[in-house]
Amino acid sequence: MKKVNASLVVSKKLPNFAFLFSSKVHMKVLEAFQIPIIALEDKSYHYTFSGDDAFFAAYEQDWVEKGRFEVSVDLTKSALMIQVQMKITGSIELICDRSLEAFDYQIDVNEKLIFKYSDHSEDLGDNLFLLDRKEPKLDLSQDIFDFIALEVPMKKLHPRFLAEEDEASTDVFIYTTDRADEKPASTTEEVIDPRWAALQQLKDLK
């Protein structure tokens, strides 16, 4: 009978076990941002959450990998909908495009989400959602990540470079031959914020 090398069997199984263990840890981290809603009465509630590097690691992406933040949530439940007023404050670690140094970037986000009760759940865009009436929990983890990710500036500069960057921008002289009364040509193409596009790519990879 041919003998099987036990070390090879173990080495093949370990990556799968590690992946499952990692997935469970990530799920547990994100579960902390869920609000049980099935038994809530029709009135207002207040919740607070906090997150750190483990929160960003749960999304397995490199857009934002480190940071600390606090979330204050005012939730108002009625017979037809749930309204969520969310405030996120804290800082995220970014890498300077010029010097490649890491630096803390302060964030301060205020957003309102509306969840209308329906027979299914769906993201309608512009912070408006349909929420299945049978849904026992309201998961805010993805919304929190999206709002923080959108705070990342297009040009990431260490604070010590910001002063000279502002001076350079004020010295720019733009020459144009267009007359003031001429209107720019219209276009049918919608201008998309590159940060939204990058964020959507992260979601598509899941």
Could you give a short description of this structure?
The chain is of the alpha+beta class and 206 residues long. It has one domain (17-181).
Largest sheet: spatial strand order: 2-3-4-5-7-6
**Helix and strand run:** HEEHEEEEEEHHH
Main pleated sheet: 6 strands, mixed
Supply the number of structural domains.
Answer: 1
Task: Report the span from N to C terminus.
Answer: 44 Å
Class per helix and strand makeup? alpha+beta
Total number of β-strand segments?
8
Count of helix runs = 5
Which strand-content bin applies to the residues? Answer: 25-35%
Poorly predicted sequence stretches spanning 5 or more consecutive residues = 1-15, 17-21
Residue-averaged pLDDT, rounded? 82
Q: Helix share of residues?
A: 25-40%
Shape: elongated
Q: Over all CA atoms, what is the radius of gyration? A: 23 Å
